[in-house]
Amino acid sequence: MERRVIIVCCVVGFLGLLSAATGFAAEAKRIKGSQVLFPSPSICVYPRSPALVLGLTAAVSLMIAQIIINVATGCICCRKGSHQSSSSWSVALVCFVVSWFTFVIAFLLLLTGAALNDQHGEENLYFGNYYCYVVKPGVFAGAAVLSLASVTLGIFYYLTLTSGKDRNETWGAPVPPSRGAIAMGQPQFPPQNAEAPPVFVHEDTYMRRQFT
């Protein structure tokens, strides 16, 4: 495996773990409904929470990981080689689509959860009643799981396409001539018959050819 591939996988994996870790931390530090104060029926007082910073950190880490893996991979439709099996390319394509799908959902969940943890004195009036919104349980945790899934699938289709590219380059490289492939042989001469009878030439014929 090339050094570049190892570096890309390590960086993307680290960013994915960072996104998941900060996502779970934001889930633990999110503002709960019992923490919201109501000094008046129309005012909601939210306490300060690190879930905003944690959620934004998770979203940014996931976005950077997605950018790196897609830039390193390039155009997936152009990476289908002639020597690459259709099944492996199809699996890589499915992982690519699912990776982007999970990325979009996780990114939106992280941003939404972070925004809901940054409300101060805001309320909403519906049908004559005032409501204060907080992040539901499991939003940040679900986004963290989707972040791990997105990064894992991204690394998988990157490795699949990279291995196919290396295989194409190996098969397409010219093969140097091998000395062992050259067959050495001895010249063949027709066997001489040692028992063949001598040929006698008449004396007149010999003298005639000599003087002409």
Task: Please characterize this protein's 3D structure.
By secondary structure, the protein is mostly helical. It is built from five helices and four strands, in the order H-E-E-H-H-E-E-H-H. The longest helix is centred in the last third of the chain and has 34 residues.
Features:
6% strand, elongated, mainly alpha, 212 residues, two-stranded antiparallel sheet
Task: Please outline what is shown here.
With 212 residues, the chain is mainly α.
* SSE string: HEEHHEEHH
Distance between the termini: 84 Å
Number of strands: 4
Roughly how much helix do the residues carry, as a percent range? 55-70%
Instruction: Report the sheet-strand fraction.
Output: 5-15%
Mean pLDDT: 76
Helix count, DSSP H or I runs of 4 or more residues: 5
Note the main sheet.
2 strands, antiparallel
Low-confidence stretches are 168-175
Please tell me how large the radius of gyration is.
Answer: 39 Å
Morphology call: elongated
Spatial ordering of strands, largest sheet = 1-2
Tell me the structural class: mainly alpha
Summarize the SSE layout with pairings.
Blueprint: H1 3-29, E1 37-40, E2 43-45, H2 51-73, H3 86-116, E3 124-126, E4 129-131, H4 139-172, H5 203-211
Antiparallel strand pairs: 1-2, 3-4
Helix pairs in contact: 1-2, 1-4, 2-3, 2-4, 3-4
